[in-house]
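An instance follows:
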Amino acid sequence: MAIQEPVLYAICDGEKARFLRFDGKELRTARSFTAHGAETDAAGEIGSIKDPKTDPHVQLKERFAREMAGEINAAFSGTDALRGLVLAAPAHTLHDIRAHLHKTVAEKILAAESKDLTNTPDHDMLAHFNRPATGWVLA
């Protein structure tokens, strides 16, 4: 059985996200999310389209980013199994996620990439990160 690296890879955009883990050979999806999923129904609190100051689509993406930060925080709470975090998201989503991470989780960020990899298959994912061949140096 392959030993999992103690790093969580969070791949997000404004409406989809995946958590991946390195199993010794490649990154594999451990969990998936959508903005309209049962776990994270980000559409629940968006404003009316009649409100001139808000764009419902932008509100949906911002809320989903906050919810993903909450999911990342939850993944790190109460466990020592995860010791590092790698984020990949478009710049605006990456900013929103980082802004809502707990301080203790934010300190575990090993890398943050400003790119949308949500539609990249698992077997191609590792090529998009500058992951050291010997693994991440974890404190």
The CA atoms of residues 90 and 114 lie 5 Å apart. Strands lie at 7-12, 16-22, 27-34, 84-88, 109-113. The chain has one domain: 7-128. The longest helix spans residues 56-76.
